[in-house]
């Protein structure tokens, strides 16, 4: 409805309905509960072992008790717990940094066209790959390591104390871009009306940030923090590949300590206690995060944000050029580790073992040949199968489950409880279920099979998929739902709307699961064993003598990164839209 | 069914350097200590230590221990003695400490040694020429050849004899620590598995490794015509007819105590404590190592 008088145009803007429609009590059919059955079966792969671990933590030769908890007093364990908590601090600092970058860069459009692809690459590659890249860059031998060559023979990078620099850089490299991209998506989703209002009211600087941007980014901050905290708590392979053996004790985190204690004794109780402590830490973080999120997650999205470019404030040319040159240099820095890997891969193994990537000696394909002799192609095939199977399983099972949770008419308490369980499962650290699963697989004689690897991955990935899909389903436009229910809309239109709304989140779930499985090392290494030979285990095997295999490791890293990088590159906007669809203000 | 043997008692050195400086190859511990002193005086660091590979350091230690007392070694392997209370262990750690303690001994210093894997140590010696020798098993042969081309030689781990200042009786013979890979058939093994193991038992089976990769000693030593390199042929010869004390890798026989959370770390920390810190640091470092060992043994029960 628009009024026009004396050149002035007035427009009445109605507020959109928010909140999900509240259905009246109807006759409940319990048949829809059956849709949750496959998820229950699959997650029992996690739930039963978790129960076993919990019992083991309290089981002592004299019956139930807390004697096993004495392990928490061991200096090595205290150190590991301290490190894990410090890592959580690192994760939170990264979130803040990412928020700052997103806010600062938001108004310079040209920045993103350069920076975005550079920021995706690190997120797409595995922890082993980024660890390998940074270990090559920080190699303590001045002939091989970039940093050692620049700063001379003084500091032993990777040595005591300094390996933290390497670890934190590698971790930030992986996650910073991802966090920035999500924040950016959040900023982009600020409604135009709101921006116009804020501009008209002349809100600027800190006040504008507090009044507009921060509240709008709150749900996204919650998710980003959660994802990063879970990533720090799961730290394992990065430390294993980046830190040389004798320093690894000093770099211990709880997951590693759990693994070491598991290997050092036949006792099940003490490692179980460590697993439980780790679980409690993550659970507290996750539940706190979700409490803040719950309300926002049920908010409707205004369907799909239009893909068209929204008009932006004009930026002065000098600022534009500044932004552009900053973007170019930032992306060059950000892509540097990847470039080092690629160039190292094109050196022969001997040359890569002797000199750094900048040397022109021994250029060639020798490292790729060596990697291929190490079983790279078979591993590639194996990984495609396992990752594909896991992604399909997660998709097929999480859709009906998420539907039941969103629209299945569950009693409120049950819905809440189910969501809490899925949140906890989504963040459950591997030590909670690894040992009982491994033992079960071994006794069944299926350890090392690709099928069991895919099943474990699917079980571990399912909760996150369900949560994401549920948030999306629950956020479907209420008018659409009500109109569809009342039959005011043509069926084809409803289907079309639903397809548009849910396609991104389905793609996001499938792509993320595929990439996560593709890049996994820990599940393959700790639970299923070497028989299934995923790519990461081949890389790990080659990395045993790191420096002299740097060429081979780099070649394997490059080949194994192509698929996830291309996939995420191609589907990035969809993935981001899918990840944030439930968080639209 | 043993398939592969690893000979772990060789010292790989730069032949041309020894020739150029007119240095003899040592046969006894005292000669080795003397040689290292001469190298240091001429500005050459004697050793590259792969401190990041704990098992390489325990191999080094085991060689000294076996040189000190084959009986003690046997008792320890048979779980009839404890590492923390066995006098030969203290003696071996002391000798080892004195070898590693003089400043200027280790390529890259102790901090770099601790981040070096065995392959890095080989590159330090034969690639970057920052040290003269590396103690390493037979399987480094292809790597050494890659970087040294033909400028390398092997001498056997010296016989422990002590010297005038630090008399040590020693076992009298050169130590020979070996490791190995065996094929194991479980009770319900299939016919195919049985056939595979039978095939691997033949003297022809290891030939592809010997010929294709090098650095491989066959457990089946019945093929006199095996195409070993001259160096590996010598090592193969040591396995059969000689009077050296042959023992299987000790740390592999100690369970978790001999592993990455046990002896590996003890020797790594010992290296951290003594490396290039001077001889007066050796006794307290040995004490600390023995305390750590007894703590670990407590934990094992």
Straight-line N-to-C gap of chain B: 32 Å
Give the helix/strand class of chain B.
Answer: alpha+beta
Number of domains of chain B: 2
Low-pLDDT residue intervals, each spanning 5 or more residues of chain B = none
Examine the coordinates and then state which fold CATH places here, giving the name of the CATH topology of the largest domain in chain B. Answer: D-Maltodextrin-Binding Protein, domain 2
Question: Do you know the CATH architecture of chain A?
Answer: Orthogonal Bundle
What does this structure look like?
- The complex is a heterodimer of chains A (585) and B (301).
- Chain A has one domain (54-298, 325-342, 352-583): MetI-like fold (Orthogonal Bundle).
- Chain A is built from 23 helices and four strands.
- Chain A has helices at 37-58, 75-105, 109-124, 127-137, 146-151, 163-188, 192-201, 205-233, 237-242, 254-264, 269-297, 317-345, 349-354, 366-373, 376-407, 412-427, 434-444, 450-474, 478-486, 491-519, 522-528, 535-542, 550-580, and strands at 2-5, 8-11, 59-60, 63-64.
- In chain A, helix 1 crosses helix 17 (434-444), helix 8 packs antiparallel against helix 11 and helix 14 packs across helix 23.
- The two termini of chain A are 25 Å apart.
- Chain B starts with a strand and ends with a helix.
- The longest helix of chain B has 19 residues, at 282-300.
- Chain B has helices at 15-20, 29-41, 54-68, 70-77, 87-100, 109-113, 118-127, 141-148, 191-201, 207-212, 230-240, 263-274, 282-300; strands at 2-7, 10-13, 133-135, 153-156, 175-182, 217-218, 245-248.
- Chain B is 46% helix and 10% strand.
């Amino acid at each position: 409805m628009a009024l026009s008088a004396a050149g002035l145009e007035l427009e009445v803007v109605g507020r959109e309905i928010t909140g999900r429609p509240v259905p009246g009590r109807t006759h409940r059919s319990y048949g829809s509960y059956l849709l949750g059955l496959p998820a229950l079966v699959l997650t029992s792969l996690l739930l039963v072992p978790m129960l076993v671990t919990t019992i083991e933590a309290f089981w002592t030769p004299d019956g139930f008790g807390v004697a096993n908890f004495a392990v928490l007093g061991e200096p090595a364990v205290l150190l590991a717990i301290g490190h894990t908590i410090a890592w959580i601090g690192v994760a939170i600092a990264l979130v803040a940094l990412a928020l700052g970058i997103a806010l600062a860069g938001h108004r310079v459009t040209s920045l993103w066209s350069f920076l975005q692809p550079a920021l995706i690459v690190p997120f797409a590659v595995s922890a082993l790959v980024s660890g390998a890249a940074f270990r090559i860059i920080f190699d303590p031998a001045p002939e091989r390591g970039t940093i050692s060559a620049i700063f001379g023979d003084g500091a032993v990078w990777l040595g005591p104390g300094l390996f933290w620099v390497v670890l934190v850089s590698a971790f930030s490299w992986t996650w910073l871009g991802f966090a920035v991209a999500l924040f950016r998506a959040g900023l982009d989703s600020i409604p135009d009306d709101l921006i116009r209002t804020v501009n008209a009211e002349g809100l600027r600087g800190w006040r504008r940030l507090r009044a507009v941007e921060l509240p709008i980014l709150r749900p996204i901050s919650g998710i980003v923090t959660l994802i990063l905290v879970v990533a720090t708590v799961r730290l394992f392979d990065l430390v294993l590949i980046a830190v040389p053996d004798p320093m690894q004790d000093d770099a211990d985190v709880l997951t590693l300590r759990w693994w070491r204690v598991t290997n050092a004794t036949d006792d099940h109780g003490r490692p179980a206690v460590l697993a439980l402590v780790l679980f409690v830490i993550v659970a507290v973080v996750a539940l706190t995060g979700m409490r803040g999120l719950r309300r926002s997650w049920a908010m409707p999205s205004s369907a799909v944000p239009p893909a068209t470019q929204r008009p932006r404030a004009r930026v002065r040319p000098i600022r534009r050029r500044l932004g552009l040159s900053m973007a170019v240099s930032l992306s060059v820095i950000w892509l540097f580790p990847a470039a080092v890997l690629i160039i190292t891969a094109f050196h022969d193994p001997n040359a890569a073992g002797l000199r750094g990537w900048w040397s022109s000696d021994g250029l060639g394909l020798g490292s790729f040949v060596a990697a291929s002799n190490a079983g790279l192609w078979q591993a590639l095939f194996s990984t495609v199968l396992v990752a594909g199977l896991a992604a399909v399983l997660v998709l097929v099972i999480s859709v009906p489950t998420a539907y039941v949770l969103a629209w299945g008419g569950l009693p409120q308490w049950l819905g809440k409880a189910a969501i809490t369980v899925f949140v906890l499962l989504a963040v459950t650290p591997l030590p909670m279920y690894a040992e009982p699963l491994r033992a079960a697989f071994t006794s069944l004689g299926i350890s090392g099979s690709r099928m069991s690897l895919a099943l474990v991955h699917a079980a571990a990935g399912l909760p996150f998929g369900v949560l994401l899909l549920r948030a999306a389903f629950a956020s479907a436009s209420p008018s659409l739902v009500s109109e569809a229910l009342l039959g005011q809309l043509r069926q084809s239109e409803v289907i079309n709307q639903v397809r548009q709304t849910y396609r991104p989140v389905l793609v996001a779930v499938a792509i993320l699961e595929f990439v996560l499985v593709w890049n996994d090392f820990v599940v393959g290494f700790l639970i299923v064993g070497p028989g299934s030979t995923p790519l990461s285990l081949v890389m790990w095997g080659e990395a045993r003598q790191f420096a002299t295999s740097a060429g081979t490791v780099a070649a394997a890293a490059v080949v194994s990164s192509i698929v996830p990088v291309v996939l995420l590159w191609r589907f990035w906007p969809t993935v981001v839209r899918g990840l944030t669809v439930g968080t639209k203000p | 069914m043993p398939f592969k043997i690893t000979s772990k008692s060789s010292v790989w050195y730069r032949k041309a350097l020894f020739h150029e400086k007119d240095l003899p190859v040592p046969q006894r511990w005292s000669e080795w200590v003397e040689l290292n002193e001469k190298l240091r005086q001429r500005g050459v660091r004697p050793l590259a230590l792969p401190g990041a590979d704990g098992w390489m350091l325990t191999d080094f230690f085991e060689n000294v221990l076996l040189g000190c007392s084959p009986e003690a070694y046997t008792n320890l392997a048979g779980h009839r003695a404890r590492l923390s209370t066995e006098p030969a262990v203290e003696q071996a750690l002391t000798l080892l400490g004195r070898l590693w303690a003089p400043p200027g001994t280790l390529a890259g210093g102790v901090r770099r040694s601790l981040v070096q894997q065995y392959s890095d140590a080989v590159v330090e010696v034969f690639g970057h020429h920052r040290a003269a020798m590396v103690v390493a098993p037979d399987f480094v042969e292809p790597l050494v050849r890659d970087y040294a081309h033909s400028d390398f030689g092997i001498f056997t781990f010296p016989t422990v004899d002590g010297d005038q200042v630090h008399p040590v009786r020693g076992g009298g013979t050169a130590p020979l620590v070996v490791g190995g890979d065996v094929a194991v058939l479980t009770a319900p093994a299939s016919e195919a598995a049985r056939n595979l193991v039978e095939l691997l038992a033949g003297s022809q089976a290891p030939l592809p490794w010997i010929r294709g990769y090098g650095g491989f000693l066959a457990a089946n030593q019945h093929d006199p015509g095996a195409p070993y390199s001259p160096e590996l042929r010598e090592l193969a010869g040591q396995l059969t007819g000689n009077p050296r004390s042959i023992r299987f890798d000790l740390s592999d026989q100690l369970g978790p105590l001999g592993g990455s959370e046990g002896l590996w770390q003890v020797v790594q920390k010992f290296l951290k404590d003594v490396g290039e810190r001077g001889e007066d640091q050796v006794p307290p470092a040995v004490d600390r190592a023995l305390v750590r060992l007894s703590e670990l043994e407590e934990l094992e029960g």
